[in-house]
Amino acid sequence: MKSFKVNVNPEILKWSIETMNIPEDEIIKTLNINKTLLNNWLKNREKLTYVQLQKFSRLAGMSPLIFLSDKVPEEKPGKIFRNYNDNNKKSYKTLKTIKRIEFLQNIAGELYDNINKSREADIEKYNVKYRPEDIAAIERKKFSNFSEQKKFRSVYEALNKFKSEVENNNIIIMQFPFNDIRGFSLINKKPYFIVLNSKENPESRIFTLFHEYAHLLLYEDESNTDNASKDDEIEKWCNNFASYFLMTDDIIKDCYNKFNGSIYDKAHKISHQYKLSHSMIFYRFYKLGYTDEDTFKKYIADSKNIDDRGGGGNYITKIKSNYGDRFINLVFENYRENEITLSDVLTYLDIKLESMHKLRSMLNQ
After folding, report:
1. Residues 279 and 194 grouped into a single domain
2. Are residue 238 and residue 296 in the same domain, yes or no?
3. What span, in angstroms and rounded, lies between the C-alpha atoms of 318 and 176?
4. Which residues neighbour 18 within 8 Å (Cβ) at sequence distance 6 or greater?
5. Same structural domain for residues 241 and 111?
6. N or C: lower Cβ tally within 10 Å for the chain?
């Protein structure tokens, strides 16, 4: 039986392609069509079949109903990105992953409601009128790991400990690979999400974690702003917050005076001892007057953030890293309470049945 035609709004087709940055060849290949037919759809000369609409909807990560609307949807603010090289254009792969994570944020809200748990993050709210170093000092006291910072056996242990402490504030943390962003926050609804780039080295991820945490602290002040200068002010505030949160001036000064060697040697030694990024340490050297602006900028330009050590670990470890302990436990708790089905669990965690049992055993350990 032949699929029937549907009245798709061509303006929404164009909008979805542009919004998701979908490559033309990806559309042609996935829907098994030619370029002429695609152009005819966009110019409203021909109609899609329902089957074609379903395939295109999956490609765009959107509901088929969206394409039947009279008006082009309005994207609401709520995603705070840390980009590479000030590049605001995201790849299709990145945007598709973000769509998946936005879906999971909606699911997380339902999972909280199912078991009568609060979606609210246990954090204070501030604004950019406060000095970031002052707020960093206040927030730093709420975390217990700083006394053990030098005792961490590896930077991965430090990252996992910091992630766990942030998640204890009822914030969900996930990690996925990206080529064009360092990380982002989803703050237009609750629960709040922080997403890190699993391809970055762990030192950089620690900094991004607390940069995005700062965005959560500022959300009441920054939401729905279209002012570019205000956005820039917020980004600087969050960078400074993360820097002062992770290391105080007193520690920086003490280490700088204690360690021998060049300024580069000192940065490396502090970074190694405290499991923090070289770039952040060098930034603090600049702020304290230990180096000039040109040297600092050159150092940052030459810094490498991508982790050549690879993802590591097995498939189960990867799932645990991707979705984070808080979200995974939330899914399993709903399953134990019969609020969701086994199929739901496999879908939300994108995991196979045999692997799911191994994941539960790992969490129980």
Report:
1. yes
2. yes
3. 9
4. none
5. yes
6. N
Q: Is residue 152 part of a domain?
A: yes
**Amino acid found at 14:** K
53-74: pLDDT as tens digits? 999 998 988 888 889 888 888 7
Q: What would the DSSP string read from start to end of 90-120?
A: PPHHHHHHHHHHHHHHHHHHHHHHHTT----
Q: CA 68 to CA 326: how far, in whole Å?
A: 37
E-only strand ranges, the chain:
5-6, 48-49, 79-83, 172-176, 181-186, 193-197
Of 268, 302, 336, which residue constitutes the final position of a domain?
302
- Entry pTM: 0.85
| Residue 50: CATH number of its domain | 1.10.260.40
How does DSSP assign 240-298, residue by residue?
Answer: HHHHHHHS-HHHHHHHHHHS-S-HHHHHHHHHHHHT--HHHHHHHHHHTTSS-HHHHHH
- Largest Cα–Cα distance of the chain, in whole Å? 79
Which structural domain range is residue 334 located in?
315-364
Binned at pLDDT 50, 70 and 90, residue 328 comes out as very high
| Burial class of residue 203 (count of CB atoms within 10 Å of its CB; 0-12, 13-18, 19+) | buried
pLDDT band at 237 (very low <50, low <70, confident <90, very high): very high
Edge-first strand listing for the sheet containing 193-197: 79-83, 181-186, 193-197, 172-176
Contact 199, 178 (CB under 8 A): yes
